Amino acid sequence: AELADRVPLVWLHLAECTGCSESLTRADTPDLDTLIFDHISLEYHETLMAAAGWQAEENLEHALSEYHGNYLLAVEGAVPTANNGVFLTVGCKGKTGLELVKEAAAGAAAIIAVGTCSSFGGVQAAAPNPTGAKGVHDVIDRTVINLGGCPPSEKNIVGTLMYYVMFGRLPALDMFNRPKWAYGARVHDNCERRGHFDAGEFVEEFSDHNAKDGYCLYKVGCKGPYTYNNCPTERFNGHVSWPVLAGHGCIGCSEPNFWDDMADFEKP
Ligand code: SF4
Ligand code: SF4
Ligand code: F3S
């Protein structure tokens, strides 16, 4: 497709691990190639772009001015805010992540926080949060679509981008500004082990026979009853697997503050 037919996308990396970008690269419907050649124009993405150094920064500056008001902004990673954000500086000019995200948000048509770090602070914001890490919505005074998950599945990322590309507006959001189409149901309610939960059949420890038989993981810490996400139905890496199918309980990774609120991950 011509550039004019594609929606420009600027993707910033702040305090993060790049797991969300890893998830994005596993997309299959559409796959990443189709996404960036037919539907969006990926203007800036530190791990996927060919440019480096000054040229990369020029690409970013060019995109922010050329497509002002029209580009989608995706943010991966929390925003360190302590000491004016100096715990994260990016690029040759030494801008803080806080400065960068404010600058990029100013001309964005819509802002998507990809992953729990940029949505709610994530692991960086876990107590005692020495860098003052926050979600994007805490530093930007407008609606931010939060794609909770550490990482969110590629479906939740691509589906949200494609929703905007196709309809030109934001999808319906839940109380934490997560798209309802992806985060509208509890993990527990669609889990393939739910029958075992209802029958009172639990794994008591990871090495026991009940674990081998695929019993419910609630007693070894599964937080599926408190977590909203589509992992059991949509899975990850295409439709290959998800945490409970792989044998470990859900750790509540798409919920705000899960590092503090859901710990200990292996105890009920
Ligand atoms: Fe990494 Fe998780 Fe943060 Fe994504 S949400 S950048 S996977 S720590
Ligand atoms: Fe619920 Fe977790 Fe048990 Fe599945 S494994 S039924 S999500 S408690
Ligand atoms: Fe995260 Fe739980 Fe899904 S840990 S990946 S929300 S099953």
In short:
The protein is 32% helix and 14% strand.
Shape: globular
Q: How many structural domains are formed by the residues? A: 2
Oligomerization category of the chains in this entry = single chain
**Name of the CATH class of the largest domain:** Alpha Beta
Query: What does the main sheet amount to?
Result: 5 strands, parallel
Q: What is bound: which ligands?
A: iron/sulfur cluster, FE3-S4 cluster
Cofactor: [4Fe-4S] cluster; [3Fe-4S] cluster
EC number: 1.12.99.6
Domain Cytochrome-c3 hydrogenase C-terminal: 183-265
Family: Belongs to the [NiFe]/[NiFeSe] hydrogenase small subunit family.
Folded structure, characterized:
Heterodimer of a large and a small subunit. Residues 17-163 form the NADH:ubiquinone oxidoreductase-like 20kDa subunit domain. Its EC number is 1.12.99.6. The chain has helices at 19-24, 32-39, 53-66, 97-106, 116-120, 154-167, 180-183, 187-190, 194-198, 209-212, 231-234, 243-246, 258-261, and strands spanning 7-13, 40-45, 71-76, 79-80, 89-90, 95-96, 108-114, 133-134, 145-147. The protein is of the alpha/beta class. The chain has two domains: 3-181, Rossmann fold, CATH 3.40.50; 187-261, Cytochrome-c3 hydrogenase, C-terminal domain (Cytochrome-c3 Hydrogenase, Chain A, domain 2, Irregular), CATH 4.10.480.10. The protein has a five-stranded parallel β-sheet with strand order 2-1-3-7-9, sandwiched between helices. The radius of gyration is 19 Å and the shape is globular. The site of one iron/sulfur cluster has 15 residues, from helix 8 and helix 9.
